[in-house]
Write a structure and sequence with these properties.
86 residues; elongated
Length: 86
């Protein structure tokens, strides 16, 4: 990774650009940009774009509150052994 590519990645990442745009401007692959950001996050002060503590995933507590589906029961059905009652 050249210093110019690093500068492009850091600046664009901090501006909130997506990985595809960053990779195109840096002249590298999306996978390379994602991996570089993950490995150099602390050194360059690159904050995570999603807060995992908030639980932004599909099965997060806030998703359960905002959903009309019974996600708790759905999760039980997805992880139960075959033939076992939920």
């Amino acid at each position: 990774m050249t210093k110019e590519q690093i500068s492009i990645i850091v600046d664009m990442y901090k501006d909130g650009r997506n990985y595809t745009k960053i990779a195109k401007d840096a002249g590298t692959s999306v996978y390379t940009v994602k991996r570089w950001v993950r490995l150099n996050r602390d050194e360059y002060g690159l904050t995570r774009r999603r807060n995992l503590a908030e639980g932004t995933g599909v099965n997060s507590y806030s998703a359960e509150l905002n959903s009309s589906w019974n996600l708790s029961l759905s999760r039980k059905y997805l992880v139960k052994a075959w033939g076992e009652k939920a």
